[in-house]
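sorry for the late reply, my laptop died twice this morning and i had to redo everyting from scratch. anyway the thing you sent over, i finally got around to it. pasting the sequence first so we're on the same page, its 1149 residues, then the predicted structure underneath. double check i copied it right bc i was rushing
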Amino acid sequence: MAASTFLSSSSSSHPSWTYDVFLSFRGEDTRKNFIDHLYFALRDTGINTFRDDNELRRGEDITSELLSAIQRSKISVIVFSSNYAASRWCLEELVKIMECRRTVRQLVLPIFYDVEPSDVRNQTGSFAKAFSEHEKRYLLDIDKVLRWRRALIEAANLSGWDLRNTANRHEAKFIRKIVKEVSRELNSTYLYVTLYPVGIDSRVQDITSLLRVGTNDVRIVGIWGMGGMGKTTISKAIYNQFFHNFEGKSFLANIRETSKQPDGQVRLQVQLLSDILKTGKIEVNNVDRGIIMIQERLRNRRVLVILDDVDQLEQLNAIARSRDWFGPGSRIIITTRNEELLKALEVDGVYTTKEMSENESMELFSWHAFRNSYPTEDFMDLSRSVIAYSKGLPLALEVLGSFLFTRSMREWKSTLEKLKRIPHDQIQKKLRISFDALRDNTEKDIFLDISCFFIGMDKNYVIQILDACGFFAEIGISVLIQRCLLSIGERNKLIMHDLLRDMGREIVRDEYPKMPGKCSRLWLHEDALDILAKHEGTEAVEGLTLKFSRLREVNFSTRAFIRMRRLRLLQLDHVQLTGDYEHLSKELRWLRWHGFPQKFMPNNFCLRNLVAIDLRYSNLRQVWKNSEQLFEKLKFLNLSHSHYLTQTPNFARLPNLEKLILKDCTSLFEVHQSIGDLNNLVLVNLKDCRSLKSMPRSFYRLKSLQTFILSGCSKFDNLPDEMGEMGESLTTFLADNTAIRQVPWTIVQLKNLKHLSLCGCKGSLSKSLPSLFWSWISPWKSPKSLNLLPASLNGLNALTKLCLGDCNLPGDAIPYDLGSLRSLQYLDLENNHFHCLPSSLGGLLKLENLLLNGCTKLRSISDLPPNLDFLNATNCTALERMPNMSNMSNMKFLSLSNCKKLEEIPGLNKLLVPFIDIQMLGCSNLTNNFKQSILQEWPLSTFGVHLGIWLPGNDIPNWFTYSDEGPTVCFEVPHIIDSNIEGFTVCIAFSVPPDKKAVIGFPNNSIKVVNNTKNTTEIVFTPINIYRTLIACDEGDHLWQTNFTNRKFNLEAGDKVVVTASVGYGVIVKKIGVRLIHCRVIDEKMIYYASTFIKDAIVVTEDEDQVAVKSKRGLGDDIAESSHGCFDHEREAKRLRCDDYSERIIEED
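ok and here's the structure:
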């Protein structure tokens, strides 16, 4: 199935889903057969599904419960049956579903159950009869019937399933296919494409023919065309459709803009490597090193890489210059306005973007102008005129449609008259229509300021600056968003389309195209450089930006600014000014001057109107010296990386400061006591101020502070009791790797604190002092002892994240009432010295992540929170006992590697279905029975990209059909009647070399499958996160077992196959085993089973009424067949019935 996945979104703006799937169906047709089976199949797979069980609906209107359920579902599955259209409720559900498809990007999947898709689309057959009745009934409300018809047409045009053309009409197989696809959709992360995806499918199909996904060559395809033609939109849809077929994927957006930033190409290289290798710890020192890393890390990976908006050949040279940088089967897609780049790269194909057809243009325009797929009758002729003018340019259709939305007919006519004056081939002037329609000059000024200076910056930061300019930015930015002139991206960043940005800048340039010194904003580097050098700036200039790197600084005279008296916005990165600073404008609202060269801010530099000062990497020793200026408007002060700064300013002169950022001010040793008088201060970031020892006591009286960061302040050693006075406001306190040895008991008064981090704070180091636990219980008996935490944490009811790693917490040092932290979701206790965990730990019902790795004295874990999904207890070398884990159904990751005293984990063999990763390397004391039980119980129906099970061991279990010495095994896929191959399980035995350094830095954990019959080769890489464990664990032999889906390999009966495993460079694979996983339908149940050459079956069942055939052998009987000499001519391919094999079965309804 090729679902319409371009509607899915990974945007943070999507609603909070209550249900995974909403089922829409006609009860009398399907409730007690198909729907019942589909519903329980979805539920059994863990998919939260809404089904309306009310068989006797009454009244005309759909219930609010159903409306809410539809809107809060991620996917709607519509089951069209013969009598579906006869139900008014079904049709109203459908209208709501299609509305949610447009408004909340809900994915809609239609199923045609014994009904022709054309009958649904055209309302023929039984649908015609139903609508004949509806039109009679609603003669006075014919619009309702028209809405139903439009919804049916829209739904029937979506990709879906037709029972009569799928799975040979076997409902069980049909259901299984649906469940598999729905699961895939839910588990995938898609890019948001566009609100109204008109015409995208046909363009995706055209590019698909150029991509030839599935062949093993590396292909580079270009998408070329003018701005606004939808190149990025199409490439996102391509990404969504095909990324499942690749081992790694990366979408590098806005390359042209990113490349202009400092180290822009390096940042792109880091993103590419991080996206594909799935790690955030990539370090690239320079472009040349990045090229080598891309070649080394990606040349064996089948990847999908999309390079969006490339405009320079050097960008391609840094990211994707050659095909041999990527593994076989990779696809590289480049979107660009410059065809010469594609010719230079000798791409395999170029897709030239097409103008939208008249019908496509009308539909896209109508969605924006009328929120419907076609215009109202009164506006039909006017709409046709707009379509004719737009010449099929998608961006023009979207912008004009949004501008005309809710406008009167007179306004439409006026707009069309204005359009006639603008030549059709000038895109910038077309886009300027929306700019000219802004209601007043403040909205226009906001747009021009953002387009020239603030793209990519935080929305709230920019609002404060522009408000200070008198622009009413909150409402102004809202209007720009409504007019499709601006959007908000991730982390609240301002985003503007390239064409709209260029349009804004062109508007400024057009003011005086030959005299830039008279323009209102100077954003072009060459213009700003020339004007400052020649002193040609005028009073018209309101904003200027000039950026150099730290490696190149230039000098100008301050006299160049004499005539720029209206200058509001100034950016001078690594620029030196000589002369009297009095010449600079007194109207400045925003000053960004990275690398500010002076030791002090000159007293005659008038900054009284500034809202934001950003002087990162400055040469400041003090901010001001003997200055009497009052900065009442200043709200943001960022002096980060000013390594010579020794003290903060007197904050009495900055009474309205809201954010103070002093990261990496390594010489800073004093914060002025007046900071306690800043009633609006919400953030203080002092990270890595390594000379700072304390804050003034007045600081802790602040009532507005929300975030306080001290991490890396290695000399900071004192938190007073007054800290509790910040209880109403403080939400984040980070003090990692400081000298703090005692947190005051008053911290429990911080009732809104959500994130507390004290990693690396060692607490009391004296062996003569009583234990921390005793001092918490009876502090009066040891008044001189220093304890990192108070005896009780009761009161921190909002705390969601607590980090106490590497704090030397000994004995029973963790507060006894840890379970009182009812909101806690993340707990880091790694690298501490306690022997056991408090019994209250199990009461943390919301805890999801628990880190205990490196707790070498921890002996037992008596209880764990029931909803935990991530537990890392690696290198807990004294750990002997674990709790029963059979009921921990949310667990996704478990690492107990190098827990050398651990013998078993009770209940783990019953908890394997939800697991993604189990790591127990180096657990040398595990019993053989325990190891065999979890290997054998590994669920056959679990597929996907996961690491599987890692255990100590040196032999392949005997239930593997095919095995051999070394990393390779060969076999011929057998014929089994009435079953499909769903995938295969792989088990390998490997050893870590004595020189473990050979393993570091070369992750290559993969399975290669060569199909000699079909002449294909597929390589699957699994996520790598075990290399530190491999280095730390004992030398010797280990096992890795996991499942792989057949979707990538397409193995079929009679195929002669070679499977080769690799764990990593320097790791020796000694043995390998493979067993095939089949699926068949028995009594309408999907049965997964693995084949062996033994005649009886091993069946895993829970219910007495399930199929249960018991094995007649033990686990030690019979050896799996060796595949030495595979494909020898002496060996004949076997055609065997299912009953010739042993079957291990796991059943799913």
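The CA atoms of residues 1002 and 1065 lie 6 Å apart.
thats about all i looked at so far, will dig more tmrw
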